[in-house]
Specification:
By secondary structure, the protein is of the alpha+beta class. The protein contains seven helices and eleven strands. The protein folds into two domains: 60 residues, Alpha-Beta Plaits, CATH 3.30.70; 152 residues, Leucyl/phenylalanyl-tRNA-protein transferase, C-terminal domain (Aminopeptidase), CATH 3.40.630.70. It has a seven-stranded mixed sheet, with helices on both faces.
Length: 249
């Protein structure tokens, strides 16, 4: 049930700069539901992420917006890199690239979810995030094998001191984890304070994600932002198998 006396907030699809409701209006059940409607224009999405809100809905349904409490996040310095994962990074000849083929990454994420349990990454969603990528707000982390085939990756949105990971995929063992390690490395280098994982799941918990109160998350979101780079570049000389995130130079 929703919070007492909470009504559904409907967003006008033609009012692209319409403010979102304050976080205290988010429902307790379903956790974090805060509004419905609106659109997926770049201005609306940017405003949403700046407010700690993200869209999540099934294809064919109205757009639903969420601001859950608690929030699943990863502090880059706390990522867990197991021995077996370091071995995969070191021995399997994978290469890591940022923003080479964003469209293929988001399509692969959608295809993976469609194969398993249906997808919320609809054609409209793919188009919307590709537009964010074109203006330097959304980014992809890509993992290629020795045959230069894309075998894993993730995408997400940069907002202030937070990078919000949206989805990941893998077609070879550990490749989504390798992409996540590369993201954590870059986030630490560039001054992102957290990677927003949005909603807890076992895969991200195994990599070091934790739950924090919504209020703490929003305070971090509004703290000193990381430098805005339209084009992300991964340094190929970096050996992630030897990276120890809690050791600083």
């Amino acid at each position: 049930m929703p919070n007492p006396n909470t009504e559904i907030v409907y967003l006008d699809p033609y009012a692209k700069y319409e403010p979102f409701p304050p976080p205290e209006m988010a429902w307790e059940e379903p956790n974090g539901f805060i509004a419905v409607g609106g659109d997926l224009s770049p201005s609306r999405l940017i405003n949403a992420y700046r407010s700690g809100i993200f869209p999540w809905y099934n294809e064919g349904e109205p757009i639903c917006w969420w601001n859950p409490d608690p929030r699943s996040v990863l502090f880059p310095e706390d990522i867990r890199i197991t021995r077996s994962l370091r071995k995969s990074i070191r021995n399997k000849g994978y290469s890591i690239v940022f923003d080479k083929n964003f469209r293929e990454v988001i399509r692969a994420c959608a295809d993976t979810r469609a194969y398993s349990d249906g997808t919320w990454i609809s054609e409209d969603m793919q188009y919307a995030y590709c537009r964010l990528h074109e203006i330097g707000v959304a980014h992809s982390v890509e993992v290629y094998n020795r045959n230069d085939k894309l075998v894993g990756g993730l995408y997400g949105v940069s907002s202030g001191a937070v990078f919000s990971g949206e989805s990941m995929f893998s077609t070879e063992r550990d490749t989504s984890k390798i992409a996540f390690v590369a993201l954590a490395w870059y986030a630490q280098q560039q001054g992102y304070r957290i990677i927003d994982c949005q909603i807890e799941n076992n895969h991200l918990l195994s990599l070091g994600a934790v739950n924090i109160p919504r209020k703490e998350y929003l305070n971090i979101l509004k703290s000193t932002p990381a430098p805005l780079h339209a084009d992300w570049v991964f340094d190929p000389s970096v050996d992630l198998s030897r990276w120890h995130p809690q050791q600083t130079d």
